[in-house]
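Researcher: I'd like a structural prediction for the single chain below. Treat it as a standalone chain; there are no partners to consider.
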Amino acid sequence: MIAVTHLTDDSADFTDRAHAALAALAARPGYLRGSLARSTDDPTAWVLLTEWRDVGSYRRALGAYDVKLTATPLFASALDLPAGFETLLDVAPGGAYDTRASDREPGT
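Model: Treating it as a single chain, here is the predicted structure.
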């Protein structure tokens, strides 16, 4: 699953705080990768993207003390948009693909 958090922040220490939040998230079980990206059109608009083994790993990570200490203050500048998404299709360079069934579909 991926988590996409849209943030708005123009403080000078934002990238340092985001780095600390990503480091805390990266230490949690089930974390696969993460990145911080800034808009090319608005220097105050950011996206924090993390990928997780499953939704349970992500939710447990958010409850961890070190994550609450570093990431929760960062998330205070998050926009109220959907953030968690299940990956249903991966396409590799060259076009090879992998599909997955949704956890939300009956019978899966």
